[in-house]
Amino acid sequence: MLQQSQDSVIRQFRSSVDSVAVYTPSSPDASDLQAAVNQVLNANETRGWTVLATYGSDRAYSPSDDFDKISPELRRSVLTKRAAVFQRVGDQGHPYLVVGMPVTYASPDRSQTRLSGLVMYLVVPQSAEQSYVTAIVSAIEHATLVALCLGVVLALLAASGVLRPVRALRRATRRMAEGHLDVRLAVNGSDELADLSQSFNDTAAALEESVAELRRLEAQARRFVADVSHELRTPLAAMTAVTEVLDEKALDLDRETGDALRLVSEGTSRLSGLVTDLMEISRFDAGVAELNLDEVDLAEFVRHTLAARGWQGQVETSGPPPGGLRTRVDPRRLDVVLANLVGNALRHGAAPVRLAMGVRQEPPGTAWAVIEVTDNGPGIAEGAMPHIFERFYKASTARTRSESSGLGLAITAENVRLHDGRISAANVPGGGAAFTVLLPLRRDSDLPGQDVGGGAP
Q1: Cα dihedral angle (431, 424, 270, 273), rounded to 10 degrees?
Q2: What is the Cα 111 distance to its own chain's centre?
Q3: Taking the CA of residue 308 as centre, how many other CA atoms within 13 Å lie in the half-sphere pointing to its CB?
């Protein structure tokens, strides 16, 4: 719109200047300039124009002196281009269109033009046009804003309809990850999302069926192990009693018979230990394993455990003095933990085997009794580290027929977890393996309604 108004003003101004130039002397004085200005202004008196003219040092204007609105750049452009030149300017926040037009004379054959030295200027306020344009722009902006808001609302509604099945799928996936394998999605329509929902339902159903079958087989395996262990327990007890009696008379037998008897006795002992371990694992699987807690002096307890197995001279112990570290544990289960860890270190590691005890503080204000067993052997293979506490796992295939059942560390880990503790395995820099057990530091005095007491087993 501003462009159309500008073109109209320039055309009208050019026409008016051409009409006046015919009657203006070639060397006009100040009165001639004023007459030319007045003639242009009178021809366009309803337009609110301000007309100015210059010739040399003479100037004329009407109705006001607006020469300050003519920039030096515009003055130079008028003389350089020999044509109408315009510029939009602002003065005190009001827009103006300034037009400069030189008066030229054509040669007789009209092949050339020369400047007469007379230049006419026009200053036109454009506040009305600018206000109109501003109003139109504002109206367009408001209409665009309304349309945008409406479009956003419609887009959100459409997106909500599209994303609703996706959100439902996300919720169902999370529930499945939490173990709710019976979750299903409603299938609506026949589009891609409906196909995806149906595929999810099929996958969930197949997974639920597979997991149920695995659980059934696992339960059967556990029952089988428990039943076999129970059935073997009685005859093994009799066999153990017989071999113990025969062991006492082994020295009276010949060498070959004595060796055979010792072989049978060792095999019976290993089988009895395996059955005992299997029955212990069965109790963990059945969820019937319980703690019989008692407060013990940890240093004294460790000494008793090592002495009962004849290991005192083979294990270096360090930690608080007797009476310096007391905590509530199940003595039988802690004895199993210590025996398994120290026994493994003695069998598969190398001297010196060390057992260290201490206290560790972890936020938020939790105290732990720490037991660490280290050896100086080859350590644990990197490939075996993730499986070290799994049942029947043996780090070396050469040990598959050894005295180890592969259940010792699994039972150890179960006993530690039953105490709400933690167990970890790592390799020691420089060689050797380290097993660390953390048990909650608890005392009888921590229990409500009980006096401080308890003793070592």
Answers
A1: 160
A2: 79
A3: 14
The span from the CA of 307 to the CA of 329, in Å, is 19
Kindly list the strands in the beta sheet with 58-62, ordered across the sheet, starting from the edge strand earlier in the chain. Answer: 58-62, 50-55, 113-125, 94-106, 85-91
Tokens of 427: 């390799």
Q: Is the pLDDT of residue 227 over 80?
A: no
Within 44-119, residue ranges assigned H as helices are: 72-81
Q: Is 323 left (phi over 0), alpha (psi -120 to 50) or beta?
A: left
The tokens of 272 are what? 């009895």
pLDDT score recorded for residue 331 = 95
Distance, CA of 122 to CA of 146 (rounded, Å): 42
Pairwise CA distance, residues 13 & 86, whole Å: 11
Q: Which domains does the chain have, with CATH numbers?
A: 2-125 (3.30.450), 192-286 (1.10.287.130), 294-446 (3.30.565.10)
Structure tokens at 36: 């030319």
The pLDDT of residue 409 is 92
Over residues 405-457, the pLDDT tens digits come to 678 899 999 999 999 999 999 999 888 999 999 999 987 655 444 333 333 33
- Predicted confidence (pLDDT) at residue 103 exceeds the cutoff of 70: yes
Q: What is the C-alpha separation between 227 and 286, in angstroms, rounded?
A: 13
pTM score of the predicted model: 0.52
User: CA 96 to CA 88: how far, in whole Å?
Assistant: 6
